[in-house]
Amino acid sequence: MASDAPVGVFDSGVGGLSVLREIRQLLPAESLLYVADSGHVPYGEKSPDYIRARSLAISEFLLGQGAKALVLACNTATAAAVAELRGRYPQLPIIGMEPAVKPAAAATRSGVVGVLATTGTLKSAKFAALLDRFAGNVRVITRPCPGLVERIEAGELNGAGTRELLRSWVEPLLAEGCDTLILGCTHYPFIKPLLRELVPASVSLIDTGAAVARRLRQLLAERDLLAVGGEGKLRFWSTGRPEEMAAVLPRLWGEALPVEALLA
């Protein structure tokens, strides 16, 4: 595999752009391929078998485009599919997502950590294993957030409806003494500014996008696959309506870019 080959990244929708942004910032020379599986969003309420099938189909597409590494920029897809993908492609760098239980447990002062995530992530064996490994004496309170992914997909990052949904989930966590909040879905960093208005400044908001970018850099460096020089290219696909993704890209990515249709 050549070092100038692209990195493939996918999510159930546009949420993984929060991870793509961290990768772009840390590794600007890398060419990046991004697939939003918006025709099947959200993953959080779907079965593990369904999510696994979608993840395999998109991964095969990205590998067909010459990807030298895969990033599952979705906690739910990681829980359902990363083990099978690593089994199928043992030589391929494959990076997944997981809720930041370990850093949150280290950061909390009150001993109470809240988790905002999809139902699929919270029900997964992978999340249960994280709690067993890292939660220790920390009290972890989970809160599924149905409907939030769809609002972010639509670019509704700070409207009254999104605000009220967040308030209904966050206020009970604060009442329990939560001082650290895990954003357990890659869509959720996009509503950080709104969350900051709803929680005290002393509450830490933790996500894992930057850690995933660092892990990608490490794995590419180990295999002598880091791109060097210049600025890498970007390509975007959507399995939903490309024009809808294109409409929210200026808000979520910072610039307008073309989005291609993907039938997969």
Keywords:
264 residues, alpha/beta, Rossmann fold, 2 domains, 6-stranded parallel β-sheet, 4-stranded parallel β-sheet, 10 strands
Strand segment count:
10
Strand content: 15-25%
Secondary-structure-based class equals: alpha/beta
User: Can you give the mean pLDDT?
Assistant: 95
CATH architecture type of the largest domain:
3-Layer(aba) Sandwich
CATH fold-level assignment of the largest domain: Rossmann fold
CATH domain class of the largest domain: Alpha Beta
Biggest sheet details? 6 strands, parallel
Helix content estimate: 40-55%
Radius of gyration: 18 Å
Low-confidence stretches: none
- Sheet with most strands: strand arrangement: 4-3-1-2-9-10
> How many domains make up the 3D coordinates?
2
Listing every helix as H and every strand as E from the N terminus to the C terminus, the arrangement reads EHEHEHEHEHHEHHEHEHEHE
Shape: globular
Give the termini distance in whole angstroms.
25 Å
Please report the number of helical segments. Answer: 11
